[in-house]
Amino acid sequence: MLLYIRPFWSATILIGSNAALHAGILRDDDDYQIEINVLKLTKKTDYALMALHHMGFLADERLVNAKEIAEIYQIPVEMMAKILQTLSREGLIVSENGPKGGYALSRLPKDISVAEVIEVIEGPIGIADCVQDAVTPCLQADTCTIRTPVAHIQARISALLTGMSVAEVHAMSAVPAVSMIEPG
Predict the structure, then answer these.
(1) Which residues contact 152 (CB under 8 A, 6 or more apart)?
(2) Which CATH topology does 43-172 take?
(3) Cβ(135)–Cβ(116) under 8 Å?
(4) What is residue 24's predicted lDDT score, i.e. its pLDDT?
(5) Where are the domains of the chain?
């Protein structure tokens, strides 16, 4: 049995079998691996950042379509189309209809933060329910000893992602430019 626990946005940590047994999640005779996802960018967010990077630095200021980006980066076309629609609906890119239509950035790459992209694609960035959701009471609120440190960690992660732009992602990119590659 494989159990996935997925809070907000994800990172992967494997928990040993004894922890799951003691927590009562699994029986002693179960065949299992537990995976908890915390702080890992999803493929959708990866693809969104790749698309924005492509539009900002590799498309020579022309409109691009989902098929072009999908073929160059070997991403499923349908998924890329949905991602681009979401980015357009939320104002990070603009779309033009027609036979020569496509997508372009709505702002300069330096003005689009990684945090914005994550929030548009995945929703609010949060590492713990108690930090992210102030409305729902935490069952351990009276006895929790890590709420304040977790809130500080959350603030630092948010600040890092808010302070990093698509332009900075480009500056750190180790992959050679693919603008010369013809799709298809």
Answers:
(1) none
(2) Arc Repressor Mutant, subunit A (1.10.10)
(3) no
(4) 46
(5) 2-40, 43-172
